[in-house]
Design a protein that fits this description.
Order of helices and strands: EHEHEHEHEHHEHHHEH
Helix content: 40-55%
Number of helices: 10
Strand content: 15-25%
Number of strands: 7
Largest sheet: 5 strands, parallel
Shape: globular
Length: 234
């Protein structure tokens, strides 16, 4: 389980982030949700979260100072910042501190937050050694399932699909540079490319898609031929 700390001074924004995400479904747990930077620093030192989501402008201690203080204490959580459009200078400093994603407070959506969290997970997995078996594939499948559910696309990954993805990842490692979680993300993006392209289109009705080993192999075959998706749609 990936532990997350949220630091945001505006109550509605803070509660919105908490309520919009199925944290357990994403393989995550919010261990702290505070309204100022000093409280965030205190909790981070005690709880050592894997991901920190922080606003830039907060009372007590701003988000940039918070990230710098964590680095000074030897903590290197994966960081997502929440910003306003006009905070360019602060964003440049945040990028120097190694943030993986930025959310614009006035326009961020559920999909934006989930995509940022997925980027953070990929960063964490790249830093670590990864889990044995197909744990990474299963976790990422659940994250993509949750992401596309926002657009009313209900995915089901069968065990044969997870196995086919794991085999493709293993083959990619043997034939090219091992780039960890980014490799897995690239595989998932290729598998779901046609679905993601149409997801969110207001003219596209909700539908369920069953993904099995055959679906994965056909989409990773490298052949430029259309795949009849009708036999995979439930």
């Amino acid at each position: 389980m990936i532990n997350v700390l949220i630091s945001e001074d505006e109550l509605l924004v803070r509660m919105g982030i908490l309520s919009m995400i199925n944290w357990e479904g994403m393989g995550m747990k919010v261990v702290s949700c505070v309204s100022d930077g000093l409280a965030a620093l205190s909790d981070a030192l005690k709880l050592r979260p894997d991901i920190v989501i922080t606003d830039i402008v907060m009372p007590g201690m701003d988000g940039i100072s918070l990230l710098g203080a964590l680095r000074g204490e030897g903590l290197h959580p994966t960081c997502i910042v929440i910003t306003a459009l006009h905070q360019r200078q602060a964003m440049e400093r945040a990028e120097e501190l190694g943030i993986v994603a930025c959310l614009v407070k006035a326009t961020m959506t559920q999909r934006d937050i989930m995509a940022a969290l997925m980027a953070a997970c990929a960063h964490i997995e790249d830093k670590g050694a990864g889990e044995s078996g197909s744990a990474d594939e299963k976790r990422l499948a659940e994250q993509y399932r949750a992401l596309l559910a926002v657009d009313k696309v209900m995915l089901t990954f069968e065990d044969s699909a997870i196995q086919a993805i794991a085999e493709a990842a293993c083959t990619a490692n043997e034939t090219s540079e091992d780039i960890g979680a980014r490799r897995l993300h690239a595989i998932f993006e290729q598998i779901l490319e046609d679905v993601s392209f149409n997801a969110g289109d207001e003219n596209m009705p909700p539908f369920e898609l069953k993904i099995n080993g055959d679906y994965v192999r056909e989409h990773l075959s490298g052949e430029n031929k259309p795949v009849d998706m009708r036999r995979f749609i439930l």
